[in-house]
Known about the structure:
- Strands 1, 3, 4, 5, 8, 9 and 10 form a seven-stranded parallel β-sheet that branches. Strands 2-7-6 form a three-stranded parallel β-sheet.
- By secondary structure, it is α/β, with parallel strands linked by helices.
- It is globular.
- The chain has nine helices and ten strands.
- The two termini are 27 Å apart.
- Helix 2 links the parallel strand 3 and strand 4.
- It has a single domain, classed as Alpha-Beta Barrel (TIM Barrel).
Amino acid sequence: xxxxxxxxxxxxxxxxxxxxxxxxxxxxxxxxxxxxxxxxxxxxxxxxxxxxxxxxxxxxxxxxxxxxxxxxxxxxxxxxxxxxxxxxxxxxxxxxxxxxxxxxxxxxxxxxxxxxxxxxxxxxxxxxxxxxxxxxxxxxxxxxxxxxxxxxxxxxxxxxxxxxxxxxxxxxxxxxxxxxxxxxxxxxxxxxxxxxxxxxxxxxxxxxxxxxxxxxxxxxxxxxxxxxxxxxxxxxxxxxxxxxxxxxxxxxxxxxx
Length: 257
């Protein structure tokens, strides 16, 4: 397919998403990007040499460590208000505690990835324990989503806690066709700061990089608090949201998620 045809197809997806948004002035979801573990097994410049093929001012929103209903629900409300789709890397333990919230995230069209069962430092534990953390995390999320315990993820996206991994762990996920996500920039919302300080920090970092995979943590109250203002900043400054899905996921299936 020629570059022109690719851009035309992406424009078609963008138009479809925009048409489905009830708010004409909303930020919206510009396009859907399929991510294939065979060609991009690891992405995110904070951890790896390559990242997703994003154009200038294209942004992928990602959230770690949920679900946590008091704050995740506020993040979801902000995303829905702007017709934006994001990716949530869920901790298995939290998914098992709040299965209704897991279902809500999926029902509202977001992508669900995996983030281990209990969020350990994966590079500091034996390989077999790390493998168990991966499998138990996947199983807990799949059980919450579909009522089926399986270690084969319906969405083969994974992010390591603290971005720590051994080569053996990376090789394991690659052998299973699971994409490992780092990030291109982050809000540093694990540090104590005011919502205003977080908003200033992340918008300055995004302005400097111009695009990228952004990392937030939806259980953080300060992140939930700034999300409406952050999305407004994106809209007012010409940024476009890219929604990531696994390779082979059709637009129809992505809409039904």
